[in-house]
TrEMBL record:
<keyword id="KW-0443">Lipid metabolism</keyword>
<feature type="region of interest" description="Disordered">
    <location>
        <begin position="262"/>
        <end position="291"/>
    </location>
</feature>
<dbReference type="Pfam" id="PF21245">
    <property type="entry name" value="PI4KB-PIK1_PIK"/>
</dbReference>
<dbReference type="GO" id="GO:0030867">
    <property type="term" value="C:rough endoplasmic reticulum membrane"/>
</dbReference>
<dbReference type="InterPro" id="IPR015433">
    <property type="entry name" value="PI3/4_kinase"/>
</dbReference>
<keyword id="KW-1000">Mitochondrion outer membrane</keyword>
<dbReference type="InterPro" id="IPR036940">
    <property type="entry name" value="PI3/4_kinase_cat_sf"/>
</dbReference>
<dbReference type="GO" id="GO:0048015">
    <property type="term" value="P:phosphatidylinositol-mediated signaling"/>
</dbReference>
<dbReference type="GO" id="GO:0005524">
    <property type="term" value="F:ATP binding"/>
</dbReference>
<keyword id="KW-0418">Kinase</keyword>
<feature type="region of interest" description="Disordered">
    <location>
        <begin position="1"/>
        <end position="43"/>
    </location>
</feature>
<dbReference type="GO" id="GO:0004430">
    <property type="term" value="F:1-phosphatidylinositol 4-kinase activity"/>
</dbReference>
<keyword id="KW-0496">Mitochondrion</keyword>
<keyword id="KW-0256">Endoplasmic reticulum</keyword>
<feature type="region of interest" description="Disordered">
    <location>
        <begin position="88"/>
        <end position="134"/>
    </location>
</feature>
<dbReference type="InterPro" id="IPR001263">
    <property type="entry name" value="PI3K_accessory_dom"/>
</dbReference>
<protein>
    <recommendedName>
        <fullName>Phosphatidylinositol 4-kinase beta</fullName>
        <ecNumber>2.7.1.67</ecNumber>
    </recommendedName>
</protein>
Amino acid sequence: MEDTELEISPAPSDQNSPSLSISSSSSPSVSLPSTPSSSCGSTQPVAPLLGVINEGVCELSLVIDAEVAQRACHEVLQKVKLQQVGSDDVTDLHEQTDPVVPGGPSGPIAAEEEAKPEGLVPGTVKSTRRRQKHNPSKQSWLLRLFESKLFDVAMAISYLHNSKEPGVQAYIGNRLFSFSHEEVDFYLPQLLNMYIHMDEDVGDAIKPYVVHRCRQSISFSLQCAWLLGAYSSDMHISTQRHSRGTKLRKLILSDELKPVGARAPSGSLVPDHGLSPSKRTHQRSKSDATVSISLSSNLKRTASNPKVESSQDEVGTIDLFLSLCPVRLAPQREFIKSLMGIGKRLATLPTKEQKTQRLISELSLLNHKLPGRVWLPTAAFDHHVVRVPHTQAVVLNSKDKAPYLIYVEVLECENFETSSVPIRIPENRIRSTRSVENLPDCGMTAEQRAGSFSVVPNYDNDDEAWSVDDIGELQVELPELHASSCDNISQFSVDSITSLESKEPIFIAAGDIRRRLSEQLAQAPTTFRRDPEDPSAVALKEPWEEKVRRIREASPYGHLPHWRLLSVIVKCGDDLRQELLASQVLQQLQSIWQQERVPLWIRPYKILVLSSDSGMIEPVVNAVSLHQVKKQSQLSLLDYFLQEHGATTSENFLSAQRNFVQSCAGYSLICYLLQVKDRHNGNILLDSEGHIIHIDFGFILSSSPKNLGFETSAFKLTAEFVDVMGGPDGDMFNYYKMLMLQGLIAARKHMDRVLLRSTQLPCFHGSSTMRQLKERFHMSLTEEQLQLLIHQLVDGSMRSLTTKLYDGFQYLTNGIM
């Protein structure tokens, strides 16, 4: 076997590109240049033996001096780095510049420019060596990771949270611009939490992206302002006043972050909906007034034009709902503020009936300001709110607070910021200006009147009225009708309602006729009876499709092609920040299980945090709570399934049973991983297809009701649940345990995606909370050991005494069955 000599020399055609040449020699030696441009003729014997290279049947004995090799490789790396800087204009992690974004920040990171020593020119050997002297291989691999396709927004948030190097943080702050808006918006709570509570370098890395997005979007601006206020609320009042989060929030709400050259949307705010010109002249809405105000907003008040300013005051706050002038964030802020104010006022009333009546009255007044340039933030498409069917709103079950559910009619549009606001279409009858108690008899008894008419109090002198010209608007809508003894009743002619016997005429509300006929046609096969203590049960039981059809038929906007119906739950007095965190975890687990093809079913719903004690929740349609099921039907869960879905051998029942098992397994895993508490039957829903849906994640991880930690089982699994699955020996129960095993294996495979950090929340109190959360993924166990663990968790939850005691406690204290 011949010995070989390994020579490393530059390629003749390119002095900057090193090449390898192997030649035969009688003695083993290596030729390494001291610099990349050194001669290839000098050789140097080296020792000791580092390794052997096998190639085919020939064995090459390679002896390299470690120190010389390291020096040569270092020089080659420097040469390649300089070539990249000079020719491709590619900078490393510490010199990364901002991406070029229209209207956004550009240029090098200011912090990095300030950190460079004087006299150190970028691109020189000295500066390159300075950057590479601290573990160059690590930084090189880290940069390759950041520039690879595997680097996603979840990884970016993780490195931004964990890295202590300002260069890495600045680079990731710039990389945020390369991700889609939807990807970054998912982690917006974590980003703003880091901006508020972490060091200045992290805040400086995040702020350019937030400011850029705020200039682009009203919705993003408001969402940032709400979250900044909510996550700053835990700070001491003196610290909070001067914190970065408070300053950024004030900057956003001051409306200084407008797009360059921003202006109000062009064109009239009153589109043509096919109304005749004569009708439009008699139906001049507040949108018309707003157009005039917007066009004259730049005029100064003079002696010849004294009403420029007074006209704005005359319309009052109503113009905030209808245009982008004077402040583009004001309409939506006023709309949300009105909904929150209703919830706070409802909480002061003692009974459900009083709360419901007040809610209907408040929403009726709210309709006087609509349509407007306002929208529901929980919706997934652009739209304008045109009407709130006030008689359909219900107060939800709560002992101390007054959350309420409303349905909102909207018109879908291309862009809610620039699209024209729809014209206001009047109701098919005059709005009431009197309470029902002040109406004369009109041929009906008091009981009949109370059950047939919507009670709308007198708003003529209401201090909470939005505008003094509300009453004038009523006269404009139907000027040919005059107030009478029954001014809210449509009076049919005597000829059309008088029978052959010439009986007295009967006065009927036309809108109520349509409503009552629609309700009769929309009755489902199984309905809930009206309960004064739980008025939401009937509304939630009604199928969503039927509700949409019924409300659309009664709506003056229902004939429009882009009409849609949305719903939202408004909550005041509850901290929804932990709910938001739980919703993020549910969305991640849902994505993981879909990716790993595990047939678990869960239903995440959108959470909007408005402050530390208020927010909005997307309702789950076609679902009622187990408490409502048991109270209304007086049946066991299995018997209710049989009533709703048929015999146990029917296709409908088997499909509903499978849905129940798949959803129960998914939520069992979620309750175990997040340690969800307060699992009474009022917080567990059952939908029309048989799925179980857990709601109200206010107590997770280290927090529990009254901080008692009473519920000790891994998750709620009652005997009724097992009966629906076919009993503990049935195939579906074994399927339930198999799904839990598959779901846990898939979840621990992507554990880093599930561990979302918001360490300032109450649920993270305690140094061991995060450690215990990681331990519940059981990364060290084999699949056989995980299977045994699942059996133990299921068996323990079935036999849990605390679950039964907590259900009994809720029944005794709150009447929850």
